[in-house]
Amino acid sequence: MLHPVTARTPVKKRAAVLLSISTVVAALASPVTAAPVPAPAPAALRWADCATPRYPTLQCASLTVPLDHDDPAGRRIALALTRVPHTAAASQGPLLVNPGGPGGSGRTLAGYVASALPKDVAAQYDVIGFDPRGVGRSEPVLDCGPGHFNPVRPDSVPRDARTERANLERVRSFAESCQARHADVLPYIGTVAAARDIEAVRTALGAARISYFGYSYGTYLGAVYAKLHPDRVHRLVLDSVVDPNGVWYEDNLAQDRAFDARHKAFLAWVAKHDATYRLGTGAAEVEERWYAMREAVRATPAGGKVGPAELEDTYMPGGYYDGYWPALAEAFAAYAVAGDPKPLVSAYERFGAVEPSAGNSYSVYTAVQCRDSAWPRDWNRWRADTWRTHAVAPFMTWNNAWYNAPCAFWPTESLRAPDVTNTGLPPALLLAATEDAATPFSGALSMRDKLKGSALVVEEGGGNHGVALSGNTCLDEKVAAYLRTGKAADAACPAQPAPKPAAATRAAAPSAGGAALHGMLGFRG
């Protein structure tokens, strides 16, 4: 669903437990139920300097936790943590941050959040980043299928049986490779296991309660933790909210429709700036030319690298962050108007091609989503649902289906997604953009209904994914006020203005709010 594949610069990464179903449900029904056997008391965290030029006070530590939280005396794994310590005389305790995914690394996000918050607010918290189990510098690291996204992949839209078979073989092979490489770990990868890890982090920090700030998939992880331990939550900020009612198969179908609408918004923006791009003055005309470009690279991949699947990968980030629109439009115009494929290949290398680390993030993505909840095992169901959705939302429906299709063949049994309904929390703060594609706005409404006393701050007309601490002063002030006081109320903020074509000729400054944040949140993440 939320796609954490890592792209090349400037985008750093690409925006859904061996526990029986009954065990998970029992744990969630009794939030403070202890494990059957007491876990060994965790050693105090040993923080060491790991400063960077941008984050000069960043510290690092490692925490061991049980692979199976129901067998605390058994095998242990390691979680990689970071911290920006509080500096105020009085502290509000730890603020754990998560960038989503699943599969996203949160270590750098601690430095970003601490530097993006007002100084007086950041000073009150120990901002804690972490790599969830299986991710990044946590150990063991999952990597199921190196080269899974190497170009040129089969056309994502299976117009004939041969193309469908090629795609099916590819995703089945990935699932089989994951089992061959990580059979001992896969049953313990999932959102509930990650939430129990968060509780282990809280214990190791010696904190009676923690605060939590999650983006995208991180909103669901935070909601599951809050369900398990409502009395341990001090503040809860959920930005770009996953619909907890659709985890994960139905959420992906909703996402397909939202991404198609967001792609159309990009094409309308291109038409508005026809004086620059010369692709047409109407959105329908520009859309026709985009799909003509797709047909052209289907026949002859641009630069031998960019076929239709890679083209979709290249333009999908525009659905997460409109700051990419000028660069994407330039590449589109160069190919469609000037017949020059080089800028399109460059755009693919910048936005669509994946780094080696993407094998890790995508592996965790599939391991979590395929384990978290039931997926259809009958491919006929996938085919029928995907063609039905493709008929009204052709931009990335099939691309997204193949991204998630390993779940049709996943080797571990699926759990049942927990009901995150919660009446025992302090007020939570939710943020959402009305036109968000990766986590459609309806998900925020669903989550608000489930978290009693929560407040929703809406970015009216906004389409970016991950809206707080990215340059919208109105939203940022709401977050800061909430973290200061714990008080939250429903509110609306205007969206930031759309980008201008001239921005395409300039690289965004590394410190620019939107560009920097979306470089960490990524897309399909």
Summarize this entry quickly.
With 525 residues, the chain is an alpha/beta fold. It has helices spanning 21-29, 107-116, 119-122, 161-182, 191-205, 217-228, 249-272, 274-277, 283-299, 308-315, 317-320, 325-336, 342-352, 358-372, 379-390, 397-404, 441-450, 473-485, 513-521, and strands at 48-49, 59-66, 76-84, 93-98, 125-131, 210-215, 233-239, 429-433, 455-460, 491-494. The chain has a ten-stranded mixed sheet, with helices on both faces.
Architecture overview:
The chain has 19 helices and ten strands. By secondary structure, it is of the alpha/beta class. It has two domains: 48-142 and 187-247 and 420-494, Alpha/Beta hydrolase fold, catalytic domain (Rossmann fold); 148-184 and 252-416, no CATH class. It has helices at 21-29, 107-116, 119-122, 161-182, 191-205, 217-228, 249-272, 274-277, 283-299, 308-315, 317-320, 325-336, 342-352, 358-372, 379-390, 397-404, 441-450, 473-485, 513-521; strands spanning 48-49, 59-66, 76-84, 93-98, 125-131, 210-215, 233-239, 429-433, 455-460, 491-494. α17 (441-450) links the parallel β8 and β9. Belongs to the peptidase S33 family. Residues 395-488 form the Peptidase S33 tripeptidyl aminopeptidase-like C-terminal domain. It comes from Streptomyces subrutilus. Pfam families: Abhydrolase_4 (PF08386).
